[in-house]
Amino acid sequence: MNKFLLHKKMYGLFAMILFCMCSFSFAQPVKRGTLKVTFVQTANGKDIVLRDSVYTNPFGETYSVNKLKYYVSNFSVPGSAQVTENDPYHLVNASEESINSFEIQLAAGTYQNIEFLLGVDSARNCSGAQSGALDPMNDMFWTWNSGYVMFKMEGSSPASNADLQRIEHHIGGYKGPYNVITPIKLSTAAGHEIKISEGNSTELIIEMNLDHYWNNAAAIKISESPLCTTMGALSKKIASNFSGLFSIKEVK
Predict the structure, then answer these.
(1) CA of 177: how far to CAs of 63, 118, 141, 197, in Å?
(2) What DSSP assignment string belongs to 101-164?
(3) Which of 221, 119, 118, 212 is nearest to 167 (CA)?
(4) Do 198 and 32 contact (CB within 8 A), yes or no?
(5) Euclidean distance between CA atoms 238 and 215, whole angstroms
(6) Phi/psi at 223 (5° precision)
(7) Buried b / exposed e across 115-147, counting CB within 10 Å, b at 16+?
(8) Residue 7 contacts by C-beta under 8 Å, 6 or more apart in sequence?
(9) 147 Cβ neighbours under 8 A, 6+ residues apart
(10) How far apart, in whole angstroms, are the C-alpha atoms of residue 12 and residue 202?
(11) Do residues 85 and 140 make contact, with C-beta atoms less than 8 angstroms apart?
(12) In the chain, domain spans
């Protein structure tokens, strides 16, 4: 190899190394802030109070709620590659306000959308005994074969023909035609974007409106379906309303 070509290759290698070193030296650390996500539960335009309030669904059926729990998981914010959580699985429980908020770390910036799953993804339905929000002691697990209850509501209604006028909806199923895991995509109103700044916290309040549980893609009447406690066609029908349950109530 002649000296000219040798020097040319060495110069090219040197330039590449220098470029990499400069790029590394001037790379800036990602500036992060905190997004606090809070869920609130409502029906008939007011907060849900377990056992002590009566609500009316879109079909004129009155009911009360004794238990209301559901899973949300795998949050993402389009436009940010820097979404981090200590645990991506959360159990929202209307009886315990303290567990209805959690924090996500995001790259500083302005965002208009947030996405998550209502339910627990199939991989974790098949992962055996787990802890935290997925602990079977949380009373949201059926069996190793059936997996998690994604949404649980219990209560009573004069319209129910079940014993003790019960309402018992345990909505689950993660495989085949009875998969009820539902992607949720929410957008902020114009002028109310999610703004994340370095070292600061922004709160996003998401409303779960039970009015839409009864009537969205499908009509679910208490008189016709007071009980649903296994995966199947009815569970799937009820889950078709999940996509309309949530909206962004406030960013502050």
Answers:
(1) 30, 17, 20, 43
(2) EEEEEEESEEE-EEEEEES--HHHHTS-S--GGG-GGGS-EEETTTEEEEEEEEEE-TT--SGG
(3) 221
(4) yes
(5) 9
(6) -60, -25
(7) ebbbbbbeebbeeeeeeebbeeebebbbeeebb
(8) none
(9) 120, 122, 125, 126, 141, 172, 173, 174
(10) 48
(11) no
(12) 1-29, 31-251
Tokens read off for 162: 């079940």
| CA 233 to each of CA 41, 178, 183, 228: distance values in angstroms, whole numbers, following the listed order | 26, 7, 19, 10
Tokens 């908020």, residue located: 101
Residue found by looking up tokens 């998969």 in the block:
179
Per-residue pLDDT of the chain (252 residues; tens, 9 = 90+): 555 444 444 455 545 544 444 444 445 677 889 999 999 999 999 999 999 899 999 999 999 999 999 999 999 988 765 667 778 999 999 987 667 999 999 999 999 999 999 999 988 988 766 889 999 999 999 987 789 999 999 999 999 999 999 999 999 999 999 999 999 999 998 888 999 999 999 999 999 999 999 999 999 999 999 999 999 999 999 999 999 999 999 999
Per-residue tokens: 36 = 């606090």
Which residue do the tokens 């330039």 mark? 15
Contacts of 148 (CB under 8 A, 6+ apart): 71, 119, 120, 124, 125, 134, 140, 141, 142, 172, 174
**Tokens standing for 65?**
């709620």
